Amino acid sequence: MNIQMLTQYFLQYGAFFIFLIVLLEYMNLPGFPAGVIMPLAGIWAAKGEISFPMVMLLSVAAGLTGSWLLYFLGRLGGQKVMEWYFKKFPKHKDVIEEKMAMLREKGCIGVFISKLLPMVRTIISIPAGMVKMDFMKYTVSSALGIFIWNLVFVGAGYFFGEAAIKVLA
User: Fold this and answer.
1) CA–CA gap between residue 39 and residue 43 (Å, rounded)
2) Is the alpha carbon torsion for 36, 39, 41, 47 positive or negative?
3) Which of left, alpha, beta for 117 (phi over 0: left; psi -120 to 50: alpha)?
4) What is residue 133's DSSP assignment?
5) Which alpha helices (H) appear in the chain, and where do they start and end?
6) Residue 6, pLDDT score
7) Largest CB tally within 10 Å, which of 45, 64, 74, 154?
8) Shortest CA distance to 79 belongs to which of 114, 127, 120?
9) Rounded Cα distance, 148 and 56, in Å
10) What is the mean pLDDT of each successive set of 10 residues along the chain, which is 169 residues long?
11) CA R_g for the chain
12) What's CA 56's distance to the chain center, in Å?
């Protein structure tokens, strides 16, 4: 997958493409890495293809949607999901158990901080659901973390434009 192909997808599918890719990443599913899509979306915004506020709105909405799905997955079937997940990714077990302990201790602050950390930011939603964190508090702390994370990546594309493309290519 190269920059030209990603640009073609954006031109063909528009804002839906940004939403879908960011959603897939926040659901911790394979797809195009949002760390590439978000800077590209920032570049497209800088070029006037889409507005910067729209990119941010789409990326935060997609991040929250994916996070909510994983939160409810954890809340409704967390133990079975974790057993399956640990079989598939045994190296993640210690990290997830550590994050669950942190969530019980730190609550919303733990979710906010986790949303700013690579790898942990997508997985934290399942343990948050498993410990039955208050949904509104979870949503607010997630939204703030998602906004900051996405702002860094979209903003980098917007402000560094063509230089960012050369780094990504």
Assistant:
1) 6
2) negative
3) beta
4) -
5) 3-13, 15-26, 34-46, 52-88, 93-106, 108-114, 120-123, 125-130, 135-168
6) 67
7) 154
8) 127
9) 10
10) 66 80 82 76 86 94 95 88 83 79 84 87 87 94 96 91 60
11) 16
12) 12
Contact 107, 133 (CB under 8 A): yes
Maximum C-alpha span of the chain? 46
Q: Cα(162)–Cα(148) distance, rounded to whole angstroms?
A: 22
**Contact between residue 109 and residue 30 where contact means Cβ atoms under 8 Å apart:** no
pLDDT reported for residue 30: 67
What is the spatial distance between Cα 75 and Cα 77, in angstroms, rounded to a whole number? 6
Position of tokens 């994983």?
Answer: 70
d(CA 67, CA 82): 16
- Distance from C-alpha of 83 to C-alpha of 90, rounded to nearest angstrom: 10
- Residue 58 carries which DSSP code? H
CA 49 to chain centre: 23
Question: How far is Cα 98 from Cα 121, in angstroms, rounded to an integer?
Answer: 14
| Orientation of helix 34-46 relative to helix 15-26, angle to 10° | 150
- Report the alpha-carbon distance of residue 136 to residue 153 in Å, rounded: 26
Q: Say what the pLDDT of residue 39 is.
A: 87
